[in-house]
Amino acid sequence: MKNTGDIVFNGASNIGFSFLTYVPDKSKYIGETVPNWSVIGEATLDDYKPFVKTDSNHPIKMYGDENVGIFFNKRVGNVNGRVNVGIHQGTFKLYMNIGEPLDSTNPTATFTQTTAGQLTSNKLYTPNTVDGNVGVYAISGQRKGIDIVGTNPENLVPTSFNPPYVVVNGKTTTGIYSKDPIHDLYMDEFAIKFGRNAKNGFMFLAKNGTVIDIRDGSPAPGGTGLGQTEFSDGMDGVNTRKH
User: What's the pTM?
Assistant: First the structure.
């Protein structure tokens, strides 16, 4: 998923990207299920890797209260005995500006939010502040060690409903998904910035045991070389001045 346009929330309680179901990394097992994938499918294995990318020149902009940039939902069963949960095995490049200014339609002259952007249920919120916004809100419980198929209620496909049946080429669901074991929710590159009007916001908010791994782009020992070496919640990054 790639977005290069403008996503602007002048109103309240919006979500930019929402993941309600499991998103595997098909590049890890496509060769098991579709041996001739390069003929009938994508050109390279990298094309099967899931991702969400926003444009650094077009960040998600939030000017109303309690908006969420990207959301990963908790585990929810359905009538077929399967499980829907917002686990995502891909990569992310996320850019967001929160609370700068109060209204995109008149950024220099407006000193209050739009009516649609104000939530009055919380007495701590004011029309002069952008309150309660969250960059990344993850309640999926995603973390290393969760099995996809098994007897544990946390598993994505509990065997009590759906045993590890043969799906294709003699491969079982267990055999296929073991190629892509669940890992922590990786955050590779991001710039989630809070402006002068932002208040009571969160860059990352995790619940239900979710583990968010902010990838260390450093080549030094312990670094992955896959993320970034520094980050800040200021509009000018690490050079943001204190007021």
Answer: 0.87
